[in-house]
Design a protein that fits this description.
This protein has 4 helices and 27 strands. Helix content is 16%, strand content 36%. A hairpin with a 2-residue loop joins β14 and β15. The chain is an alpha+beta fold and 361 residues long. It starts with a helix and ends with a helix. The N terminus is likely disordered. Strands 18-19-20-26-22-21 form a 6-stranded antiparallel barrel. The radius of gyration is 20 Å and the shape is globular. It has 2 domains: 310 residues, Thrombin, subunit H (Beta Barrel), CATH 2.40.10; 34 residues. The longest helix has 33 residues.
């Protein structure tokens, strides 16, 4: 039997106050602070991906890590070097996350494949470049910023140990990550890959970090098309940064991973500022669109993750493998050399930054 509390929670989301401003959004902008919703506890299940170079340990006198802080981050007052419109929602909030992920085990996290891999790549038990250079942070919300810094508890930040399984191509886009340690006071989500979840007009909602913002929930959406065995289309209000976000059904079970969608913002020449892209509906007109009509936001079906978890639990994903389609394998080694050089430059810069701080310059 499904939980009545979960059903009431989704109903409650539908009556939260809305703000009709220019906003990709389908119809009315349905994004809200997660803390204002009946699903506030999901902050312990959903994480944002932040560069490990931006996260600093705050240690006690005995050397133990007591918290973490981020000093350098952006906001939405500008976009691609130009001003955003004054009525854009959340424009003065921080933007620190580049992807979203969600917990499926004590030390297992799921995200979009393109957050961890290159296009055309399929891996098993691999520590990819993105795995090495990013951390996963729980509890990043609108209250995280204080005194010009983002602050997180000692049990909120984790690193990626390896990508247990993942694919990134035109049809399959997912990654299952093993974290560096078991999470503390965190809750894995429940998965449901039943075919009924992908029927047209099934109610859904999403939780994540749109455009890198503090965690948001967006409800009032539906499945609009069951594409194939791996994908489905929705009219969720999502943005870059939502990649890897869990898509929930009416009962609060995860049925998919948000992986792609429409153009997020467009430049309003009349107002001389960037505004949120508004689509009147699936298959209808947008302020700005890659195609002539809104194509919807794509979700990867959670069955792909369930298959990977089954193999992992059976001990069948221990061998390290990395495969590329032929078009991409030829350039892989060259790209890795370039990324190694970039990482060395970043590390040298951070060492210099620490020296300047220590000398009070």
């Amino acid at each position: 039997m499904k939980s009545k509390l979960l059903v009431l929670g989704v109903v409650a989301l539908s009556v939260l106050p809305t703000q009709a401003v220019e906003k990709v959004v389908y119809g009315v902008d349905n994004r809200f602070e997660l803390s204002r919703s009946p699903y506030a506890n999901l902050k312990n299940s959903v994480a944002g991906m932040l560069s490990k170079y931006d996260i600093k340990e705050v240690k006690a006198e005995d050397g133990e890590v007591q918290s973490y802080e981020v000093k350098y981050f952006g906001d939405l007052t500008t976009y691609q070097g130009r001003k955003t419109c004054d009525d854009m929602r959340f424009r003065e909030q921080s933007t620190a996350a580049s992807c979203t992920g969600f917990l499926v085990g004590e030390d297992l996290l799921v995200t979009a494949g393109h957050c961890m891999l290159r296009y055309g790549q399929k891996v098993q038990n691999q520590k990819t470049y993105s795995c090495m250079t990013n951390n996963w942070v729980f509890g990043y919300d609108q209250n995280s910023e204080k005194d010009g810094k983002l602050n997180f508890g000692k049990d909120d930040v984790y690193s990626c140990a390896t990508v247990i399984a993942g694919e990134y191509n035109q049809v399959r886009d997912y990654a299952v990550i093993k974290l560096n340690k078991k999470t503390v006071n965190k809750t894995p989500v429940k998965l449901n890959s039943d075919a009924d979840n992908y029927k047209n007009k099934e109610d859904i909602f999403v939780v994540g970090h749109p455009t890198g913002l503090p965690i948001k929930i967006a409800a009032g959406a539906q499945v609009v098309k069951d594409q194939d065995s791996s994908r489905f289309l929705t009219n969720l209000d999502t943005f870059a940064g939502n990649s890897g976000s869990p898509i929930f059904n009416f009962y609060g079970e995860v049925i998919g991973i948000l992986v792609s969608g429409e153009t997020d913002y467009f430049y309003d020449t009349k107002r001389a500022c960037y505004s949120v892209n508004v689509c009147t509906g699936f298959g209808e007109n947008c302020n700005s669109s890659i195609s002539a009509k809104a194509r919807g936001e794509t979700g990867t079906k959670i069955s792909l993750v369930e298959e990977a978890l089954k193999l992992y639990n059976e001990g069948k994903l221990t061998a390290a493998k990395s495969e590329f389609s032929q078009a991409y394998s030829e350039t892989y080694e060259e790209e890795m050399e370039e990324e190694d050089e970039i990482e060395e430059v970043i590390e040298e810069f951070l060492e210099l930054d620490e020296l300047i701080i220590s000398l009070n310059l």
